[in-house]
Write a structure and sequence with these properties.
Layout: H1 3-33, H2 40-52, H3 60-67, H4 71-83, E1 87-91, E2 99-103, H5 105-125, H6 131-147, H7 156-159, H8 164-198, H9 202-226, H10 228-255, H11 264-290
Helix pairs in contact: 3-4, 8-9, 9-10, 10-11
């Protein structure tokens, strides 16, 4: 057997061992994520907040840049994490109009437990080697590191240059985030107005309806600043996506529903599912027509 062939076989062994080690680490990672009903993308978002936003948090735009996701996708991701108690939105001290995304104690506990899980993982794997085997492996890995050229990774600043175009896109993303927040206020105020009407608090209902109407005007002004036609189609597309998420949440609630068929809660959820199906058909049909 030639020397080159022997070297090739040895390299193949090293690569197979490295792939096996990566698979083992990934398996441990999945075992940590799945019990908490987190997706890989959701856990990655929590990790970035844990690494880069522990003190002051991160905005939706900043988190989206770190994850390489579109603003609307990141916003929906944050909303889902917020509903399940993993993150919280807090007002920025410097600008009360903007929100910062921060981890909750529930998430902090997840990462504290993660450190323990990682320690247990290495104790149950690397710890099976004898002291001499451990020392030999460490020395070999150190030597391998020395002979390998250190890769020069681009910095975060290089990947995200702060030129005029970047600042403009960032400003537009912030405007879009503000528009989304305004839309949520519209929904809350209209719901509260209906509740007030049922309670015969007509003056309060009138104020709430007026405030909702003004929020709609503000949102339209923001959308006009962003480019009304282009933004309208994108918002309509996101509406179709978000409606699908709500539909999936409703189906999940029905599957885990502890009530009987006669209970009011089950009836309400079933009606919501039927309504959501109708909304999906409507919005998809309209969205399809606008793209023709």
């Amino acid at each position: 057997m030639s020397k080159d062939h022997e070297l090739h076989n040895e390299i193949d062994v090293v690569m197979r061992v490295m792939r096996h080690a990566q698979a083992a680490v990934k398996s441990r990672f999945i075992q940590e994520v799945v019990p908490n009903r987190l997706t890989i993308v959701q856990f990655n978002a929590l990790q970035h907040l844990h690494w880069y936003g522990r003190e002051s948090g991160m905005s939706v735009s900043e988190l989206g840049e770190h994850l390489g996701l579109a603003h609307n996708t990141t916003s929906a991701l944050v909303s889902r994490l917020e509903r399940h108690g993993w993150v919280i939105r807090r007002k920025c001290d410097q600008d009360r109009r903007r929100a910062r995304i921060q981890l909750t104690p529930q998430s902090e506990q997840l990462f504290r437990e993660g450190v323990k899980h990682a320690t247990n993982f290495w104790e149950s794997t690397f710890g099976q080697l004898s002291t001499q085997e451990q020392e030999n492996l460490i020395e070999s890995l150190k030597r391998l590191k020395q002979v390998m050229a250190k890769p020069v990774w681009p910095s975060y600043a290089q990947l995200h240059p702060r030129d005029a175009d970047h600042l403009q896109k960032r400003f537009e993303a912030d405007l879009d985030e503000l528009a989304q927040a305004k839309l949520k206020l519209v929904g809350r105020r209209l719901i509260l107005a209906q509740i007030a009407e049922k309670r015969n608090e007509h003056e309060l209902a009138a104020y709430l309806n007026q405030a909702a109407s003004e929020e709609i005007r503000h949102t339209n002004q923001l959308l006009a600043m962003l480019g009304h036609g282009e933004n309208f189609e994108r918002l309509l597309s996101s509406l179709v996506h978000e409606d699908t998420l709500v539909y999936e949440e409703l189906l999940s609630l029905l599957e885990t529903n502890p009530h009987t068929e006669e209970d009011e809660e089950l009836t309400v959820l079933q009606q919501m599912v039927q309504d959501s199906q109708r909304y999906k058909r409507w919005f998809r049909s309209v969205h399809k027509q606008t793209n023709q």
